[in-house]
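Supplementary Text 2. Reproducibility record for the structural model of the 33-residue chain.

All settings were left at their defaults, and a single model was retained for analysis rather than an ensemble. We include the record here because the model underlies the residue-level annotations in Supplementary Table 4.
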Amino acid sequence: MLEAFFITLMVLVAVGTAAFTGLVVKKLYQGQR
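Retained model, structure tokens:
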């Protein structure tokens, strides 16, 4: 049970980081235009 919790937490963190990075890259890309 604890393993599943940690796996879910890691997945959520990874998804959140990817989304945040995507937003930052998008903003920078639009700013350069």
